[in-house]
């Protein structure tokens, strides 16, 4: 059986070696044991159940939360020659009945289903008639109410261990904190010593976080400089902002499509399909978009607003660079974002215990965006992993180091000014008082008579904006959005005002001033030394696109960009040389090998050698 897993890896998927813990996990499952797999997006989670599903005698059932996700995965498997299918509401009765018939006659290796169908009595009865060898629960963090994508139906999956106690179960997710992991183990019925945690590092992703200063223009500058012709995702906090941002991108020459829960189902599905099947499409979306999106060539993920937690941020940014090539995670935020997230939390109907946990997660996220240390180091530490070097050389803080400074006195002045002005005014007025400005509002409220009037002249306007933003971020001040965004002292402010706590803040470079882009990384997803190589790469992509359109499938299920890049670098002139390129299995070699060889050899002027 162990030899068989390598045979399947090579003949079906076209790879010679497993990555990370894949081989260990697969052996564990093949021995009949349960497993929980935590592995970052793009690290090869799917192989951990797909290869056992092809090695074991019988049927593997994959529980997947989204119709689009299961359809894409099945299409990709069918391209590899795997006998895979899915059952969901998007198919008519005859199509679903055909799949059920194949299941009963043992003609399929993998079948993907939604949790709702999985839990139905009719489907459970059907499984009693089939030779089920493995259950795989994808996006397993949906089990937990403490997670970031809780789905109640997932908690009912415990029926699997009750009705099929002898069939191994594997739960897979890219993000899960300790509470979420505990829930997964309990619900799916997996023993604590059967947990496999891979590194959360995504070395090909570059992290960049900026202060908002006309966010729309900042995004356009970022895209024009680094991703003028790339596919990407832009996340916004609301449906209204999604529509506004989509229109703005279109006006600036980008192919942008909206995606949010308020759109008509047909429009939403068509937009997602275009994003998956076409190149250079930007999806502008709320967090309703993306879970399990199996598109490897997403070159950037941009957040126009703060997400609600590091888990959400990590999962959303993980949708970039799944092919292992260079990608960017770009985020802009400001005081309003921090205030909104805190208000959402305060207004939530969640139970007190969950509310407190979500507050802790938000505080961790705010610590991340305000951090002066390496972004990658911060993320890995949050997930319980250490990084040997504290400078990754790929995030904004490592590329353009930011200092911290003792801001205790400055914060005391700010807190005192907020208190003495009656906790009824926003940041602009408080800063005017600190700077000693004689505005009409200052004079009408007699705030020029306060002891805090003009005591902050050692800092400029933008520096005070930075100080106040960070004071809100670390919980010294609150912003009351229901009272004209007035600043109010938080409980922790007392210890600072009394001199019982020192405060160190990030010394923002040019805070809230004119934005400067410092994103590292190539403008193109793949770079070549010669113009001829670039032209060959473009021809291969065009050939791939024509094949994909003819079949109605996404281009990446034919070959990933990384495979095309290796064709350019290796310039194979014989089918046996093409076989050596990672990612080309036997079925794809037979289907597409000679046509891609024709493109390579005709471009390089070599003689085409058929087999």
What is the end-to-end distance? 32 Å
Computed over alpha carbons, the radius of gyration is: 27 Å
Beta strands, count: 17
Backbone structural class: alpha/beta
Major β-sheet annotation? 7 strands, parallel
List segments where confidence is low: pLDDT < 50 over at least 5 consecutive residues: 513-524, 605-611
Question: Level of helix content?
Answer: 40-55%
Count of helical regions: 27
Taken from the alpha-carbon principal axes, the silhouette is globular
**Average pLDDT number:** 88
Sheet-strand content, in percent, reads 5-15%
Strand order of the largest sheet: 3-4-2-5-6-1-7
Overview of the molecule:
The protein is an alpha/beta fold and 611 residues long. It has 27 helices and 17 strands. It has a seven-stranded parallel β-sheet with strand order 3-4-2-5-6-1-7, sandwiched between helices. Strand 3, helix 5 and strand 4 form a beta-alpha-beta unit. Helix 2 packs across helix 3 and helix 15 runs antiparallel to helix 16. The protein is globular and about 85 Å long.
Itemize the secondary structure elements and their pairings:
Layout: H1 2-13, H2 22-30, E1 35-38, H3 47-55, E2 59-63, H4 67-79, E3 84-87, H5 93-104, E4 110-113, H6 115-118, H7 121-128, E5 132-137, H8 152-155, H9 159-163, E6 169-173, H10 178-188, E7 195-197, E8 205-211, H11 215-226, E9 231-235, H12 239-251, E10 256-259, H13 265-277, E11 282-285, E12 298-303, H14 310-317, E13 327-333, H15 335-347, H16 352-370, H17 375-382, H18 396-399, E14 404-406, H19 408-420, H20 427-435, H21 440-444, H22 461-473, E15 477-480, E16 486-489, H23 493-497, E17 504-506, H24 531-551, H25 561-570, H26 575-579, H27 586-604
Parallel strand pairs: 1-6, 1-7, 2-4, 2-5, 3-4, 5-6, 8-13, 9-11, 9-12, 10-11, 12-13
Antiparallel strand pairs: 14-17, 15-16
């Amino acid at each position: 059986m162990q030899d068989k897993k390598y045979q399947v890896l090579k003949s079906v998927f076209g790879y010679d070696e497993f990555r990370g813990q894949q081989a260990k996990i697969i052996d564990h499952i093949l021995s009949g044991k349960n497993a929980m797999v935590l592995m970052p997006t793009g690290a090869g989670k799917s192989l951990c159940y797909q290869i056992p599903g092809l090695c074991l005698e019988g049927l593997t059932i994959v529980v997947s939360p989204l119709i689009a996700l299961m359809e894409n995965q099945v299409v990709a498997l069918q391209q590899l020659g795997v006998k895979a299918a899915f059952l969901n509401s998007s198919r008519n009765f005859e199509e679903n009945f055909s799949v059920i018939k194949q299941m009963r006659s043992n003609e399929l290796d993998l079948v993907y289903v939604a949790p709702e169908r999985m839990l139905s009595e009719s489907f459970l009865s059907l499984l009693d008639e089939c030779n089920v060898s493995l259950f795989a629960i994808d996006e397993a963090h949906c089990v937990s109410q403490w997670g970031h994508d809780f789905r109640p139906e997932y908690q009912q999956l415990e029926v699997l261990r009750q009705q099929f106690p002898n069939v191994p179960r594997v739960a897979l997710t890219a993000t899960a904190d300790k509470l979420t992991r505990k829930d997964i183990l309990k619900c799916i019925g997996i023993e604590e010593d059967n947990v496999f945690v891979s590194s959360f590092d995504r070395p090909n992703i570059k992290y960049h976080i900026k202060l908002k200063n006309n966010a729309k223009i900042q995004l356009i500058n970022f895209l024009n400089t680094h991703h003028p012709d790339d596919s990407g995702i832009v996340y916004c906090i609301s449906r209204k902002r999604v529509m506004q941002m989509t229109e703005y991108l279109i006006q600036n020459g980008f192919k942008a499509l909206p995606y949010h829960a308020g759109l008509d189902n047909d429009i939403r599905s068509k937009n997602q399909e275009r994003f998956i099947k076409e190149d250079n499409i930007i999806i502008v979306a709320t967090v309703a978009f993306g879970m399990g999106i199996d598109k490897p060539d997403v070159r950037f993920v941009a957040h126009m607003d703060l997400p609600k937690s590091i888990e959400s941020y990590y999962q959303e940014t993980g949708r970039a660079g799944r092919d292992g090539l260079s990608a960017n995670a770009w985020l802009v935020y400001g005081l309003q974002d921090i205030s909104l997230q805190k208000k959402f939390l305060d207004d939530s109907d969640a139970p007190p215990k969950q509310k407190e946990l979500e507050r802790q997660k938000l505080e961790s996220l705010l610590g991340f965006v305000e951090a002066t240390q390496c972004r990658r180091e911060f993320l890995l530490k949050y997930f319980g992993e250490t990084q040997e070097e504290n400078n990754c050389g790929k995030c904004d803080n490592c590329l353009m180091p930011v200092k911290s400074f003792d801001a205790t006195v400055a914060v005391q002045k700010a807190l005192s000014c907020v208190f003495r002005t009656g906790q009824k005014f926003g940041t602009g007025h408080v800063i005017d008082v600190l700077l000693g400005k004689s505005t009409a509002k200052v004079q009408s409220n007699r705030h020029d008579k306060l002891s805090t009037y003009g005591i902050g002249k050692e800092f400029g306007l933008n520096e005070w904006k930075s100080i106040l933003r960070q004071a809100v971020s670390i919980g010294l001040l609150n912003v009351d959005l229901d009272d004209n965004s007035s600043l109010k002292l938080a409980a922790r402010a007392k210890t600072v005002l009394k001199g019982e706590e020192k405060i160190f803040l990030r010394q923002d470079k040019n805070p809230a001033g004119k934005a400067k882009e410092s994103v590292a990384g190539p403008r193109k997803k793949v770079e070549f030394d010669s113009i001829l190589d670039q032209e060959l790469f473009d021809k291969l992509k065009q050939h791939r696109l024509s094949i994909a359109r003819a079949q109605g499938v996404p281009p990446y299920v034919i070959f990933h960009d990384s495979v095309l890049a290796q064709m350019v670098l290796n310039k194979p002139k014989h089918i046996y040389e093409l076989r050596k390129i990672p990612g080309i299995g036997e079925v794809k070699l037979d289907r597409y090998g000679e046509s891609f060889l024709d493109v390579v050899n005709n471009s390089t002027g070599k003689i085409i050698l058929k087999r």
